[in-house]
Amino acid sequence: MRQTLTCLAMLTMLGAAPALAQTTVTGQPAPDAGTSEKSGGQQAVTRPNTDRPDANNPATTGKASSAKLEEGSNSFTEAQTRKRLEDAGYKEVKDLKKDDKGIWRGAAMLNGKSVNVGVDFKGNVAAQ
């Protein structure tokens, strides 16, 4: 009986271990966090994109990002894509169309210049 209880306790602990090992990332990325372009895009899954200009941080606005846009099934609507681009500092966003690789592409103004822009399924924003 004691051996059965010990065995059952061990199996319970082994079964719970994967659930205890999972983490949830919340809040802001670390100040020294690498960009998703440097990490090959993998970290963009678990944290906000640090490649795009931040409208709340004047030091980053007015700069076109060269984030690597990744192919994939994109569920952003045209309105959500437009908002993301505007939040990144782009103005007069137009001609948004989702291509066959799942990347929203269009044109926008940045510092008075017309640039081609894109938004991938992770929300990465880039000038192209």
Please give a structural write-up.
It contains two helices and four strands, in the order ααββββ. It has one domain (2-127). The model is unreliable at 42-48 and 58-62 (pLDDT under 50). The longest helix is centred in the first third of the chain and has 20 residues, at 2-21. The radius of gyration is 21 Å and the shape is elongated. The chain has a four-stranded antiparallel sheet, with helices on one face. The N and C termini lie far apart (69 Å). With 128 residues, the protein is of the alpha+beta class.
Layout of strands and helices, then pairs:
Layout: H1 2-21, H2 78-87, E1 91-98, E2 104-110, E3 113-119, E4 125-127
Antiparallel strand pairs: 1-2, 2-3, 3-4
Region (Disordered): 25-90
Protein name: PepSY domain-containing protein
Biased composition (Basic and acidic residues): 80-90
Structure summarized in a few sentences:
Residues 25-90 are annotated as: Disordered. This protein has two helices and four strands.
Number of strands: 4
User: What is the radius of gyration?
Assistant: 21 Å
Q: Percentage of helical residues?
A: 10-25%
User: How large a portion of the residues is in β-strands, by DSSP E?
Assistant: 15-25%
Topology as a string of helices (H) and strands (E): HHEEEE
- Main sheet makeup: 4 strands, antiparallel
- Gross morphology is elongated
Mean pLDDT: 74
Task: Give the end-to-end Cα distance, rounded to a whole number of Å.
Answer: 69 Å
Any idea how many domains?
Answer: 1
Structural class estimated from helices and strands: alpha+beta
User: Uncertain regions: pLDDT < 50 for 5+ in a row?
Assistant: 42-48, 58-62
In spatial order, strands of the major sheet run 1-2-3-4
Instruction: Count the DSSP helices.
Output: 2
Biased composition (Polar residues): 36-48
Keywords: Signal
Protein name: PepSY domain-containing protein
Signal peptide: 1-21
